[in-house]
Design goal:
Rossmann fold; five-stranded parallel sheet; alpha/beta; about 375 residues; about 15% strand
Length: about 375
């Protein structure tokens, strides 16, 4: 929306920012890497891509992961935005006052070189180990041992993120999060639950609703906690000490969103199947394939547990469009993520694919980082 972009640009300049405008996803990613902006505002409805994939790619690229992204969109899914690393979320239509306030808050955040973390943990040894893990310099960590102390601190001071254990002496972690998000009004405070408690399915579902992240204490949990706090505090990975940077690099070699998920590739060219299979298996995905649309439908019906489909559009006999329409005829496959793979990027491709039943699309030659991002976004849903 060029008019809205101009209003935002003028307001940003009033707040002391210099501004750049991108009206397409591919341009936005290129500009973010090239210019390393202080902050990004993001609309989720773009003509060539789903804005969630832009957020995902920015937050999975070490060069742009630290850049605060403020979502301004008609979609009302603010908690998902915060979970994926956005700093804030504003729903359109937005008044000039609310836009101005959002930019002021953004300016104040980037002007503070030291971010503030609150750790709520009743075990003193555990508290100290978290402080040492997070480190100092660009983060100031405050620790408390009870829920009451946490509430008092949050009412007195500003924090950018909270880490808490569920086993507190005076209240449960569930009660504390509920009070922080409702009574104190800090519903957008990024909250990471760091616990050794064995969670029931019901407890885990409740925590996923309340908190932005849940890290279960085990052998690999310190790395995951460092990673989650770095995401929510917008830390520059390159500026971390060597040991901590290596921890995060090692962690990012695997992707829990993709590990073990089942993908069906439907493509008549075995070279494409081989290239995609080799790449996806590196992300520990389970890959099956079909060399025609009819075979793809048969595979889906036989397997019954496919998580996502990669559908080549240009196939002989039954092409990808026809195959996707046929798949969507089955009630059990109506919500199945299908990513269409088109021959080359052409205007109107995305609309044509989505009209035929695709969830999203990607053009050949396939950008593997973009493909991983699409898979993460659709498997998250």
């Amino acid at each position: 929306d060029t008019n809205f972009a101009q209003i935002l640009l003028d307001l940003a300049r009033d707040r002391g920012f210099k501004g750049l405008v991108a009206n397409r996803a591919d341009r936005a990613l290129t500009m973010a890497r090239e210019y390393q902006p202080t902050a990004v505002t993001l609309d989720l409805r773009l003509p060539d891509a789903d804005g969630w994939t832009i957020l995902d790619r920015l937050k999975h690229d070490p060069a742009t992961r630290h850049i605060p992204v403020h979502i301004i969109s008609v979609e009302e899914n603010w908690q998902r935005g915060l979970r994926l690393g956005a700093i804030d979320f504003l729903v359109k239509p937005a008044s000039k006052e609310s836009l101005s306030d959002a930019l002021t808050t953004l300016h104040e955040f980037v002007d503070r070189p030291v971010k503030r973390l609150l750790v709520v943990e009743d075990d003193e040894v555990a508290r100290q180990s978290i402080v040492e893990l997070i480190g100092s310099g660009d983060v100031q960590t405050t620790t408390v041992g009870t829920g009451a102390e946490a509430i008092a601190k949050l009412q007195e001071e500003h924090f950018d993120c909270m880490v808490l254990d569920l086993g507190l002496p005076d209240m449960t972690g569930f009660q504390l999060i509920t009070r922080v998000k409702s009574e104190i009004g800090l519903r957008k405070l990024p909250t990471i639950v760091y616990t050794g408690k064995q969670l029931s399915r019901r407890e885990e579902a409740e925590l996923r609703r309340l908190a932005e992240s849940v890290v279960i204490k085990d052998a690999g949990s310190p790395e995951r906690l460092l990673d989650e706090t770095a995401l929510f505090l917008h830390r520059v990975t390159a500026s971390l000490p060597d040991g901590k940077r290596r921890m995060l690099e090692q962690l990012h070699r695997t992707d829990p969103t993709l590990t073990g998920r089942k993908v069906l590739i439907v493509d008549d060219d075995v070279r494409n199947i081989f290239a995609l299979t080799t790449f996806l298996e590196r992300s520990e995905m389970k890959v099956s394939y079909a060399e025609s649309g009819r075979e793809g439908i048969a595979r889906l019906q036989e397997a019954g547990d496919i998580d996502v489909v990669l559908m080549d559009v240009m196939m002989p006999e039954m092409d990808g469009y026809e195959t996707m329409r046929a798949i969507r005829q089955h009630a059990r496959f109506r919500q199945l993520p299908i990513i269409a793979v088109t021959a080359k990027a052409m205007k109107g491709d995305r609309e044509k694919c989505i009209e035929a039943g695709a969830s999203d699309y990607i053009a050949k030659p396939v950008d593997m980082d973009q493909l991983l991002s699409l898979l993460r976004v659709w498997l998250y849903r």
